[in-house]
């Protein structure tokens, strides 16, 4: 049984995200929602019930402040009464995510219980104000998330989105950050990102490097069989919410052949948004560039593989 934790500060859009996920992707699953509102009257629970969902509300206090034994009993009751395949927990907007996770993991009475999503929703419009005024609660949520979902990015400038993503990355270097507006992104993709702790693009880098290692060992056996491609090949990668101009992208890719300035680049790949064009995937190898349209993704991603890479110059080329 999966347990999804969808957290976030007050008013960030947690309930809206849950509704989107269920409507578009999880509607065939048997789901129970544990709704933990801050206040005496539960509003979000009523909204979720309109989707014909089973909702268990905790309004007397925060999950993270509830005695673990009581929380265990609540989970046992849910399993006995509904036997769901998935439980979605929406903690109070003032909960510390680290304590919520600890409470969930302390429930060891259910067989095959799996903490699945650890999502934090962040309202980009109020990011600065909240991190300044509510630092401890806010940074705790960011630091303990596996996936950060930015809300209201359609109302923000590219500079705002980039700033927020960089600030989040300083607090949590390992999380995935979803920057694409929700109406342009499928729930399926959000779940794929949330349920995979390692980036697809990093997996590809490892596969490419493994391939390069094998090739290089074969070619170099007569000279130095102990030397692997990892001693020669290097990688640079980045996530970015930047929206590229089509003509600028072509110039960037053309410039990758400048070995003196950027190093010897043998492969480059990316998934990015292009203004007025939508999302594209580009592939670069020396003497060949391919750009093709794809469906919207959660944020832009870039990967460059080569030898003696000048990473700061490459970063400047792509990101300015």
Automatic annotation (TrEMBL):
TM spans (from-to): none
A GO term, aspect molecular function: nucleotide binding
Record keywords, A-Z: Chaperone, Hydrolase, Nucleotide-binding
Catalytic activity annotation: GTP + H2O = GDP + phosphate + H(+)
Organism superkingdom: Bacteria
Keyword rRNA-binding: no
Ranges of residues in domain CobW/HypB/UreG nucleotide-binding: 5-175
InterPro entries per record: CobW-likC_sf (IPR036627), CobW-like_C (IPR011629), CobW/HypB/UreG_nucleotide-bd (IPR003495), P-loop_NTPase (IPR027417), Zinc-reg_GTPase_activator (IPR051316)
CobW C-terminal domain segment(s): 235-318
Any one annotated GO CC term: cytoplasm
Record has Signal as a keyword: no
Stored PANTHER family: COBW DOMAIN-CONTAINING PROTEIN, COBW-RELATED
UniProt family annotation: Belongs to the SIMIBI class G3E GTPase family. ZNG1 subfamily.
Protein name according to UniProt: Cobalamin biosynthesis protein CobW
Species in which this protein is naturally found: Clostridium polyendosporum
Name of the encoding gene: cobW
């Amino acid at each position: 049984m999966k347990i999804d934790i969808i957290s976030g500060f007050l008013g960030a859009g947690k309930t809206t995200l849950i509704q989107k996920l269920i409507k578009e992707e999880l509607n065939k699953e048997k789901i129970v929602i544990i709704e933990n509102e801050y206040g005496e009257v539960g509003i979000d629970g009523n909204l979720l019930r309109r989707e014909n969902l089973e909702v268990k509300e905790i309004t007397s206090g925060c999950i993270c402040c509830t005695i673990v034994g009581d929380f265990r009993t609540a989970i046992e009751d849910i399993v006995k009464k509904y036997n769901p395949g998935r439980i979605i927990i929406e903690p109070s907007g003032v909960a510390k995510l680290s304590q919520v996770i600890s409470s969930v993991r302390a429930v060891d009475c259910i067989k095959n219980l799996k903490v699945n999503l650890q999502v934090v929703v962040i309202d980009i419009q109020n990011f600065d104000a909240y991190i300044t005024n509510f630092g401890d609660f806010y940074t705790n949520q960011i630091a303990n998330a596996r996936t950060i979902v930015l809300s209201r990015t359609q109302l923000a400038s590219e500079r705002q989105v980039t700033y927020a993503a960089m600030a989040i990355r300083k607090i949590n270097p390992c999380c995935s950050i979803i920057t694409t507006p929700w109406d342009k992104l499928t729930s399926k993709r959000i779940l794929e990102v949330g349920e995979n702790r390692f980036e697809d693009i990093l997996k590809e880098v490892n596969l490419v490097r493994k391939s390069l290692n094998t090739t290089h060992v074969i070619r170099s056996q007569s000279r130095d069989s102990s030397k692997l491609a990892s001693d020669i090949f290097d990688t640079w990668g980045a996530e970015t919410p930047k929206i590229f101009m089509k003509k600028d992208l072509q110039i960037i890719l053309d410039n990758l052949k400048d070995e003196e300035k950027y190093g010897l680049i043998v492969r480059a790949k990316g998934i990015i948004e292009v203004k007025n064009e939508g999302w594209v995937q580009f592939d670069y190898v020396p003497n060949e560039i391919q750009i093709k349209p794809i469906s919207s993704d959660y944020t832009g991603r870039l990967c460059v593989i080569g030898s003696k890479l000048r990473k700061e110059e490459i970063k400047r080329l792509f990101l300015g």
